[in-house]
Amino acid sequence: MARVEDFLADQVAAGGDGLAFTDSIGTRWTYADLDRASDALAETLKGAGVQANDRVLMLSENCASAIAVLFASWKLNAVAIPVNARQTRGEVQRILDHATPAVVLMTTAVSKDATAHAEHLAATEISGAFGTMHMAIRTSNPDPDLSDVAVLLYTTGTTGDPKGVMLTHGNMRFGGIASANLRQMTPADVIYGVLPLTHVFGLVSVVTAACYAGASVQQEARFSAAALYDAVMNGVTVLPAVPQMHALVMQYTKEQGLAKLNSPSLRYVSSGGAPLDPAWKRKAEAFYGLPLQNGFGMTETSSGASATKNALGSPDISVGPKTPGTEISIDDQAPGGNGAGTGEVLVRGPHVMKGYYRNPVETEKALDSDGWLRTGDLGKIDENGHLHILGRSKELIIHGGFNVYPPEVEAALNDHPQVIQSAVIGRMKDGDEEVLAFVQIAEGDTLDAEELRAFVKERLTGYKRPSQIVIATELPAAPTGKLLKHKLLDAFADRLS
């Protein structure tokens, strides 16, 4: 069986002297360096009792040492569990209880949050070619059902039973190769690695793709608009990001008195995680001077299932045609569907997860007997075979008997020149679901809610307009930059009537 670590072996066999990973604490590893670092760490893990089919949980933020943890785990035929160190103690404990890892590793050299977890877990410091980190030894508990699994990824914001997504080596290889081919990546490319590698986008579309192509990744532990700006002006060629990151770097550049980026090296920019609206897409493309590619994927599909390859100025705001080897179908009879081509997006292919670890009930809900994954996203396929995502089926708002898709309302709000980004949710009130909008503007800016209400009145029919608009300089977000809609009501409870 071909495995993800074979990509590293291929790079080493080719010479291994190409730059592989740099990070915010000054680490510079070639592929040969990464091979040596992961070998050294594998020996340390073996000495701690890690066996094949054990789980190795990593509490980390982006750094070279985290990459060593992944490959060391795979070299022992163990399963890596990347978890963002910024998760709370309770969130981490829930994953520990469910996954029962043999060891927990913490990238304490780059993360104060990892250091806090290390103290709580009474971890001891380890060091070597892999850098310095902390390790807490637990109990080896091999699970033969994981023999083909590379990683367990616990999805953001899950409630109820744990949902650890099992991605096999085949899933990750397929996703990494597809991402590298889509971007035409070569060893000359420098990819900006600010998307957390604890998230499927950063893990597969950045790290795995880079290892396949022999490209290098500039790892950043935390997002900063200033750091992103500096990176793309100084050698970065490929920028995969989420819309919130693009919005914030555009705002940062504007604050520097510049209208455009004018990067001498950047050649590819992509956006994922949310639909695009035409005005925002035109604004972003004018800023970068490059086409803004879009795509659709999720943890359960090893990242991408569809993607665009548009020319600069294309009016296409879809998430593109299906990627090679992928099948996409629409169930227009599912909740939120209209029976006429709009409905739940179904995906099938070599990148679809094995299932949810130790959770057969949720696995059966998500995967049917023919291998189709129910994504929970609402969408439609246009006459060109391009997929359009309308929103999450669970986020659909039914107001006055009409369907309101949050991305459409967000697009109207985002058209306002002072709006950086927005989030729209529904809330039950007096037997109906009202539309609530939360809008982010820059520090020092002033924007009146009534002014914004008048602005969207020209763009949205009555039942789609927000009944309340909250304006703030910051909205709750995950480490990926993705807005956390489930936290909005609590965060702004004092500003809602």
UniProtKB/TrEMBL annotation:
Domain AMP-binding enzyme C-terminal: residue ranges: 408-482
One Gene Ontology MF term: medium-chain fatty acid-CoA ligase activity
All copies of domain AMP-dependent synthetase/ligase, residue ranges: 10-357
TM helices/strands, residue ranges: none
This protein's UniProt keywords: Ligase
Similarity-based family: Belongs to the ATP-dependent AMP-binding enzyme family.
Protein's UniProt name: AMP-binding protein
